From TrEMBL:
<dbReference type="InterPro" id="IPR036627">
    <property type="entry name" value="CobW-likC_sf"/>
</dbReference>
<keyword id="KW-0378">Hydrolase</keyword>
<keyword id="KW-0547">Nucleotide-binding</keyword>
<keyword id="KW-0143">Chaperone</keyword>
<dbReference type="Pfam" id="PF02492">
    <property type="entry name" value="cobW"/>
</dbReference>
<comment type="function">
    <text>Zinc chaperone that directly transfers zinc cofactor to target proteins, thereby activating them. Zinc is transferred from the CXCC motif in the GTPase domain to the zinc binding site in target proteins in a process requiring GTP hydrolysis.</text>
</comment>
<dbReference type="InterPro" id="IPR051316">
    <property type="entry name" value="Zinc-reg_GTPase_activator"/>
</dbReference>
<protein>
    <submittedName>
        <fullName>GTP-binding protein</fullName>
    </submittedName>
</protein>
<dbReference type="Pfam" id="PF07683">
    <property type="entry name" value="CobW_C"/>
</dbReference>
<dbReference type="InterPro" id="IPR027417">
    <property type="entry name" value="P-loop_NTPase"/>
</dbReference>
<dbReference type="InterPro" id="IPR011629">
    <property type="entry name" value="CobW-like_C"/>
</dbReference>
<comment type="similarity">
    <text>Belongs to the SIMIBI class G3E GTPase family. ZNG1 subfamily.</text>
</comment>
<dbReference type="InterPro" id="IPR003495">
    <property type="entry name" value="CobW/HypB/UreG_nucleotide-bd"/>
</dbReference>
<feature type="domain" description="CobW C-terminal">
    <location>
        <begin position="230"/>
        <end position="324"/>
    </location>
</feature>
Length: 326
């Protein structure tokens, strides 16, 4: 589709999508720290009232805009348009925009923003929808979550991540499944999001015509529902945590309820530790890392977000509070 002004004058936008915990932020960090001589403005949208992702995106010169309190494809779409419009006023400061959606976002309405909003359309160009796939969990996720299916179907590029957690036969089976949903998008395998930049950036254009062929209603107001049974619980605690108690509690919890716990992430304040600790889990598989000191004027407060099914808020709160130092 050629539109005036010429596409060179338009800022390229990459939409990074993929189900909860697939590795979007990990890949984003890989892109931001790579030597490409470019500067990206980053928009991060997450599900759950307490923002965590902002702390997990690497500290580079990049400007990171955080959008919480809703999913980018529904309630906060107006916010996205406002952020893009204000970014465009500082057009010369960056070469492109990367938007990381929540793991539950349907990419279609996000992509639609770049065609439906006149102001956005005249200044930006959707370069590609890149979908990150968790090689270990995707088959199960596709059975349970229509959003995951949409994310694969709608992708211009598919990144098959976490290849270290699956063997060759499993990877081939997943590739076959992906091809059966989206036969056009190339599939690139990665570990820890170590993608080749040329595989995801400068893809030269989201193919509107292909999408219109499959989804003639794309430019209208799409009907869009989230799975009603997925919810989030956000907890915070000012009293420092006892690291041992936390480890025991969270391991037992994930062991018992891991199937329902789609995603857990937190920034934790452990007693006696100068640094923030980032805790993360996808189902039962957890990891964690120190992520540097608390920022000046930042309250030393632990924040923990659960996203999943059948979450029992009072029980989770009681469990979390029981990890506080005595
Ligand atoms: N073993 C393994 N773990 C990975 C890989 N990529 C990411 N992870 C881990 O998977 C977890 C989720 O990674 P993120 O990059 O935060 O995933 P995300 O898609 O941004 O998650 P949400 O934004 O919460 O949906 C983290 O604990 C990562 O360290 C990989 O290739 N292999």
């Amino acid at each position: 589709m050629s539109d005036s002004p010429t596409s060179d004058a338009l800022v390229p936008v990459t939409v990074l999508t993929g189900f909860l915990g697939a590795g979007k932020t990990t890949m984003l960090n890989h892109i931001l720290t790579a030597q490409h001589g470019r500067k990206y403005a980053v928009v991060v949208n997450e599900y759950g009232e307490l923002g965590i992702d902002n702390d997990l995106v690497v500290d580079t010169d990049e400007e990171v805009f955080e959008m919480n309190n809703g999913c980018i494809c529904c309630t906060v779409r107006g916010d996205l348009i406002r952020i893009l419009t204000s970014l465009m006023k500082r057009r010369g400061k960056f070469d492109g925009i990367i938007i990381e959606t929540t793991g539950l976002a349907d990419p279609a309405p996000v992509a639609q923003t770049f065609f439906a909003d006149e102001d956005v359309r005249s200044k930006t160009r959707l370069d590609a929808v890149v979908t990150v796939i968790d090689a270990m969990n995707i088959e199960q996720t596709l059975k349970e979550s229509p959003e995951a299916h949409q994310q694969v179907a709608f992708a211009d590029v598919l990144i098959l991540n976490k290849t270290d957690l699956a063997d060759e036969a499993q990877l081939e089976a997943v590739e076959k499944t992906l091809k059966s949903i989206n036969s056009i998008a190339p599939v690139h395998r990665t570990k820890k999001g170590n993608v080749k930049l040329t595989d995801v950036l400068d893809q030269g254009g989201f193919d509107l015509e292909r999408v219109l062929k499959n989804m003639p209603e794309f430019l209208e107001h799409p009907e869009h529902k989230h799975e009603a049974d997925i919810s989030s619980v956000s907890l915070s605690l000012k009293t420092p945590l006892d690291a041992n108690k936390f480890q025991l509690w969270i391991s037992a919890l994930l062991q018992e309820k891991g199937a329902d716990m789609l995603r857990t992430k937190g920034i934790l304040n452990f007693e006696g530790q100068p640094d923030r600790f980032a805790f993360q889990a996808v189902h039962m598989m957890a990891d964690g890392d120190s992520i540097g000191p608390w920022k000046e004027n930042e309250p030393r407060e632990s924040r923990l977000v659960f996203i999943g099914r059948n979450l029992n808020r009072p029980q989770l709160r009681r469990g979390f509070e029981s990890c506080a130092i005595a």
